[in-house]
Every structure is written in C-alpha cells, then in structure tokens.
Specification:
357 residues; mainly beta; Immunoglobulin-like; 3 domains; six-stranded mixed beta sheet; five-stranded mixed beta sheet
Length: 357
Amino acid sequence: MSHKYIVVFLFFLNAIILSAQCPGDDPCAPGAFNSGYEQIDPSSIVDAVFCSGQTRVFTIGVGPGTTNQAATGDIEFVTLFFDFDCDGEFETSVNDSCSYTRPGGCNVDLSVVAPTVTVPTTYNARAHLVYNTATTNPCANLPGGWGDIIDFTITVNLPPEPVLTSTDVDNTICEGDNVTFTGTDGDAYEFYVNGSSAQAQSASNTFSTSSLDEGDVVTVRALDNLSGCDTFSTGITMSVFDTRINIQPVVNQTVFVGDNAIFSAGTADADTFQWQVRTNGGIGFNAINDGVLYSGTTTASLTIISSDIDKNNYEYRVVVSNALAGCPPINSNPGRLNVRPKTIITNRRVTYSVNKN
C-alpha cells in the first residue's frame, strides 16, 4: 500500500473514532453559584448508565450546602441538559422538583431517552439546580446564587441483542413436557414467564421448566456487564396441549341382532383417534378399521354396523393422542357390547317379531 493511501486510510479511521466522541467545547460557561447553599450530589451524576435508544431513570441527589441549608419543605428544581446532536448547544432537557428535607436533602428522578447510536458515543451534559424556580436557560446565572451547576459527560453504550430459542422447535408441547430455553449475547441472564421473573439473574443462559400452560410467553433479559446495558428478547409463545378423555364410552351397551351400536368418547386437545376391540376371552386390544363391520374407527364416535351375535361381550375402547404436539396416547375405559337375539312367533296365520329379553 502506498504512503498516500495509508494517510487517507488513517484520516478516515481517525474520523470514525472521533465521530464517537462529540462533546467538543463546553456549550456555555458555568454560571456563578454560592457553595454555601444546596448542591448537586456529584456521585449521583458520575458513571450513569445510558443505553442506545432506551429510557433510563437518572436519580439526581440534592444535598446540603457548606454553610446554609434549605428548610424542610423548600422546593428544589433540577434540570438536565444534553447536547445529543453534537452541535455545541443544549437542545434537550428534562426537569422535575423535590421537596427538601433537613438534614438529608432530596432526590429527583428524571427519565432520559438516550439517542440511538451504532458505536458507544459520548455527549455533553449539564445538571442545573435552582431553588424555587425551574431552569429554562442552561447558560443563565443562578438567581441569587442559590443553586448549583455541574458539567459532565455521558456515554451512550450499545445494548445486547439477545436471541431466545427453545429445545422444542415449533414451541408446541404437551402438558408437563420439559422445555429448555437458551439466551444469547449477554454476560448475565434473567428469564421471565408472562412478564414475571421465573429464574433470577445469573451467569446461566439456560432455563428449564415443565410447568408451562397454553399461551405462556417466555422472554429473557440479557445484561452486558461491560456496558451496563440490558435488553429483553422477543418472547416465545408456547402452545401447550392437555390431551385427555372427559367422557368415557358407555360401560355396557345392549342391542339386538342386526341393530347398530355406537360407542362415543368426549375428549380435549385430541386430534388422533383409533378404536380397538377385545374379543371374548381375549387378552389384548386390536385396532379395527372402517368397512362393512365398522365406521368411525378413527373418530371420537364408533359405529358397529348391524351387530351380530358373534360380537356379544366384545369390548371396545378408543386410543387418543395429539399428533401435532406428539403427546403420548391415552386409552379410554372399555365399553362392553351385549347382543341379544330376536324371536319370531306365529299365531293363527299372524307373525310377530319380538325381542327376547
């Protein structure tokens, strides 16, 4: 690389570095004040954490002066000024007041929205304390010298950008399933379920639970210890299926030969059904299929078509599950089918068809 290009490269590199430092000269000289009266607590200004695009509460302490302390109930106005556009003037300000208490003083909580940055950037700031009157001009002298002015700088840091994933790819589970969530891009993590902390902040970036319900939203707050910034991830909404049989098939059902018999089950969160039969003296159940003997074998309601005497004492049950979530199958209680024959009686050339009890 030629010396010419090295010089140009260094010029642009230096410009990039300087672009992140924009306080420049102080926008205006501090006004005169009397140190005997109330003063801003410097420790409440130093090392404040600001994060790109985020809102932070800046707590400013108002303490006693060196010789003259305000009376309890005196109103102290605090204004913070910022040069967030780096043009050498204070355009941005927030202010509020507190009621002084002897001997400790008072605090003012000011919400500050930090500018959005792409690199950590330092800005000029000024804290302005005035007794009994709100400050509007950052460069004005204090009326009567009753107050304090402190110039300082703030650095706006980049917050983490956490991504939350779970061990269940489609976030669809069965009631009681264990799921592990993993967060990224932080030094410490706190996990939340529906906005409430479920695992306290720690260095662990994983959180496991088997207590999720339908519609629960899991998020993680990632903290960057170096910048002091934290950010919540996008939430994961869980679909949780509680597959169960609410209404069991009729325990015993009696029909006559040639009649249809119906066994039904009431279910919740089930999308897969398979009816089974156990024949007389049988040990286990076997799956049945739709055809001339049965219909509805993969639904919640089974029809036994034109029951014949051979099916007397057959037992039927349904196996249900949720295929979407992969829930384990659940067996219903068995229902027994009783089939009774019909009897034909002829009396003086008149034929009667009766059911034999």
